[in-house]
Amino acid sequence: MSDRSDVIFVYDGSFDGIMCCIFYCYYEKTMPSDIRPSDEEQLMLGAYIDIITDCEKAERVRSAIKTKLGEDFLKIVQRLSLSFEEDRELLILKFVILGFKYGRRVLSRLADNTVNRVMKVESYVAKEAHLSLEFLRFSDYGGVLVAVIEPKNTVLPLIADHFADRLRPERFMIFDKNHKMAVIHEPGRTEIIYIDSLDLPRASEEERKFRALWRSFYNIIGIKERYNPRCRMNHCPKRYWGNMTEFNDDEDNYSDKPSLSEGVLLSDDVISSADMLSESSISSESSTEV
Fold first, then answer.
1. Separation between Cα atoms, residue 33 and residue 35, nearest integer Å
2. Which is nearest to 146 in space by CA: 183, 178, 180?
3. pLDDT surpassing 80 at residue 270
4. How many CA atoms lie within 13 A of 153 on its CB side?
5. What string of DSSP letters covers 97-126?
6. Contact, 159 vs 172, CB < 8 A?
7. What residues make up the domain containing 144?
8. Is residue 287 part of a domain?
9. Among 154, 160, 147, 198, which Cα is nearest to 179's?
10. In which band, very low, low, confident or very high, does the pLDDT at 260 lie, cut at 50, 70 and 90?
11. CB 9 within 8 A of CB 34
12. Is 164 within a domain?
C-alpha cells in the first residue's frame, strides 16, 4: 500500500462514507494523509479524492470487520465515528488496518500509539453518553417532553434507544444544540433528524411548579456540613449545569411563539419531522466479505 502524504480523502460525513474510505484505501492501495467531510472547508494543500458512498461497498467492509475482528471491534469503530476528534476518520482507518494485520488480539496492543489513543477516545465517547443519560432533564410542553443537551461528542445515536425504550408511550424530543440534531419519539416511531435551532414556548405554570418542586427536593436532601463543590464538579462537570433544572432558576428566556423550527412541529396531536438520518449510519447486517 502506497503512503502518499499529499492525498486527502473527502467523503459525505456518514459512517458508510468512512467504510467506503477504507474500501478505497485497500483496493486502490492508497494511504491518505487525511480524511475530511465534504461539508468542511478544505484548507489543506494536496490531491483531493472524492470518495463516493456506496452502500454495497460499505456493507462489505462492515461485514469483513465483524467476521474477522468481531462485533465489539465494530462497535468501537462506530463510537469512534461519533467523536469530536478532528482526525477521527484517519484514526479509524489506521485502527482497522492494524486490526486486519493482527486480528482480534489488536485490542490488547495498548503499547501501540494508535490502539492506545483509540481506547482513550472511545472511552471518552462512552463516558459522555453515560453522563448524558444521568444529567438530561425533560420539561413538559403541552404533553411533549423536551430536553436540550450540549455534548462535545455526537452522543444522540447512543442514548436514543435508552429513552425510547423507557419512555415508550410518551412523546419526546432531545435536542443536541452543539451538533444541530434531535431525537424525535412517539409511540411506535423514533427518528434522528437534523435541526438548525429550537424555539421553545414559555413553560406552563404547572411545569414551573414541578421545576420548583425538583429544586426544593435537590436543596433539601443536601447536607450543608458535607458541602464540597469540587467533588460535585468531579461527579457532575459544570458544562452540564446549564441544562439541569436544579442549577437554574426559571427565567423567561423562551420565545412567546409556541413553535419549533426546521421542519419539526410539536403539538397535542403529532410529532412530525423531515430529513431522517439513515439508521444504516449506526448499524447494518451483511455476510459479504471484502
1. 7
2. 183
3. no
4. 24
5. HHHHHHGGGGGG-TTSHHHHHHHHHHHHHH
6. no
7. 136-281
8. no
9. 154
10. very low
11. yes
12. yes
DSSP code at position 238: G
Q: Taking the alpha carbons of 248, 253, 259, 263 in that order, is the dihedral positive or negative?
A: negative
Give a yes or no: residue 288 inside a domain: no
Nearest to 51 by CA among 67, 60, 64, 38: 38
- The per-residue pLDDT for 5 is 63
pLDDT, position 45: 67
Residue with the bigger pLDDT between 147 and 286: it is: 147
Helix, strand, coil shares of the chain as percentages rounded to 5? Answer: 45, 15, 40
Cα 119–chain centre separation: 17
Considering the domain architecture, whether residues 152 and 76 belong to the same structural domain is answered as no
Q: Between residues 248 and 54, which one has the greater pLDDT? A: 54
Quick one: pLDDT at residue 47? Answer: 85
- pLDDT tens by residue, 37-91: 988 766 666 789 999 999 999 999 999 999 999 999 999 999 999 999 999 999 9
Q: Can you tell me the distance from the alpha carbon of 98 to that of 270, in angstroms, rounded to the nearest whole number? A: 48
Characterize the bridge pairing of strands 189-194 and 181-186: antiparallel
Q: Are residues 280 and 57 in contact, defined by beta-carbon separation less than 8 angstroms?
A: no
pTM score: 0.81
Asked if residue 165 is part of any domain, the answer here is yes
The rounded distance, in Å, linking the Cα atoms of 288 and 65 is: 11
Strands 265-266 and 271-272: antiparallel
Amino acid making up residue 56: E
35 and 122 assigned to the same domain: yes
User: Per the structure block, which three cell numbers stand in for 167?
Assistant: 419512555
